[in-house]
């Protein structure tokens, strides 16, 4: 039986690119361990937590690649371990994050905050470091969805974000008393967003998810001026009337030069918890059609689900990941989002790197 050598394995692996940097994992020493014996190849790849939701499929991709290039009898096993590559400070604001994603909608009530919070939770559950900034200053609902009403404290001049279900969270809802109306003028909004970004001790993040206020462009404009935003997600329900507003939301993000990374259809079909039958209350498939028309990726559908509404109402949104209807739908949206981000990074020219192995 032909035995592969270490060099054969490294040669085969050299076409596997780290999704974060687009660099060859062999050259930049992200092959943490390699054992070759008796026709068995065990590889440990080091990948950063930025694309943690994709680790299972990246493992398979590396195994497929090795199997295709090594003698057929070889048994290949790839393991993935965390590899730390520090995030860089973004723009003049100095936020240390690898991706900033704005979640918006054309109008209120379509489930934007629920989806933004659930996405943040989904990414964090996979192992990514996630901050959630509730910039929906007109109706901050993130504290309620996560069941937290703590007041942030100041430490060495920085606001300490509230820790909730593995997320670092900041919201105007923590600062303004619940029933108080706040009238925001443009410059005040800009100031608040800036303060949330600059004066919060976010620490090092893979993702900062920003729950945007519906409709208006003010905060999107501020955000795009303050730091490089990786992109936006537009949440929409499938009926025609809601789609009209979603089209405006896509146009608004494009106007302030924020790329739309995808659209999500929320409240699409109702799955009866008793009999499992499906009902298309608001129609279904409308958002995918609209996304295709607009040239925007479609990230997936989240069913209308009474338990999701209840979990949000009682401040236990994190429990939606144990729901058999909601969890797979949300996980699929998370994976599609990060797959698109990874594809985008891989298609950009790789960052310059020092060759370690020569
Ligand atoms: P928005 O941020 O767009 O105003 P919210 O996230 O506050 O919307 O959601 C509005 C209401 O709809 C909340 O009561 C929430 O629990 C509920 N909701 C959101 N998505 C779903 C869903 N897929 N199934 C059932 N209820 C949902």
Structure description:
The structure is a single chain. The two termini are 31 Å apart. The strands form three sheets. Strands 4, 5, 6, 9, 10, 11, 12, 13, 14 and 15 form a ten-stranded mixed beta sheet that branches. A three-stranded mixed beta sheet has the order 1-2-3, covered by helices on one side. It is globular and about 75 Å long. It has two domains: 11-82, GMP Synthetase, Chain A, domain 3 (2-Layer Sandwich), CATH 3.30.300.130; 89-347, P-loop containing nucleotide triphosphate hydrolases (Rossmann fold, 3-Layer(aba) Sandwich). The chain is an alpha/beta fold and 358 residues long. The chain is built from ten helices and 15 strands. It binds adenosine-5'-diphosphate. The site of adenosine-5'-diphosphate has 17 residues, from helix 3, strand 13, strand 15 and helix 9.
Structure summary, number of beta strands: 15
Weakly predicted, low-confidence segments: 354-358
| Coarse morphology | globular
Distance between the termini: 31 Å
Average pLDDT metric: 91
> What is the CATH superfamily of the largest domain?
P-loop containing nucleotide triphosphate hydrolases
Described by strand count, sense and barrel closure, the largest sheet is: 10 strands, mixed
What helical percentage do the residues reach? 25-40%
Backbone CA Rg: 22 Å
Give the count of helical stretches. 10
């Amino acid at each position: 039986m032909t035995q592969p050598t270490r060099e054969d394995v490294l040669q085969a692996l050299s076409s596997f690119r780290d999704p974060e940097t687009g660099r060859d994992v062999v050259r930049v020493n992200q092959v943490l361990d390699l054992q070759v014996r008796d026709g068995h190849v065990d590889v440990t790849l080091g990948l950063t937590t930025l694309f943690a939701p994709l680790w299972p499929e990246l493992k398979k991709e590396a195994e497929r690649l090795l199997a295709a290039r090594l003698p057929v009898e070889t048994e290949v096993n790839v393991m993935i371990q965390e590899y730390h590559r520090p995030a860089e400070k973004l723009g003049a604001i100095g936020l240390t994050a690898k991706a900033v994603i704005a979640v918006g909608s054309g109008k209120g009530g379509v489930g934007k905050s629920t989806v933004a919070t659930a996405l943040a939770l989904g990414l964090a559950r996979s192992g990514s470091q996630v901050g959630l900034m509730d910039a929906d200053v007109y109706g901050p609902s993130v504290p309620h969805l996560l069941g937290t009403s703590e007041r942030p404290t100041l430490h060495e001049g920085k606001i300490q974000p509230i820790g909730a279900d593995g997320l670092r969270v900041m919201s105007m809802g923590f600062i303004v008393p619940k029933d108080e109306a706040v009238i925001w003028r443009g410059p005040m909004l800009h100031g608040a967003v800036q303060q949330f970004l600059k004066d919060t001790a976010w620490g090092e993040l893979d993702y900062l998810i920003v729950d945007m206020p519906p409709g208006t462009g003010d905060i999107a404009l501020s955000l795009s001026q303050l730091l490089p935003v990786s992109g936006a997600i537009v949440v929409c329900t499938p009926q025609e009337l809601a789609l009209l507003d979603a089209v405006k939301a896509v146009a608004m993000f494009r106007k302030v030069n924020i790329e739309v990374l995808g659209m999500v259809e929320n409240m699409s079909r109702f799955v009866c918890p008793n009999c499992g039958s499906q009902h298309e209350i608001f129609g279904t498939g409308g958002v995918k059609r609209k996304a295709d028309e607009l040239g925007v990726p479609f990230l997936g559908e989240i069913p209308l689900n009474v338990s999701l509404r209840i979990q949000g109402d009682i401040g236990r949104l994190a429990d939606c990941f144990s729901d058999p209807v909601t969890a797979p739908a949300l996980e699929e949206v998370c994976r599609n989002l990060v797959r698109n981000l990874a594809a985008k990074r891989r298609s950009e020219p790789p960052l310059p790197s020092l060759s370690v192995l020569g």
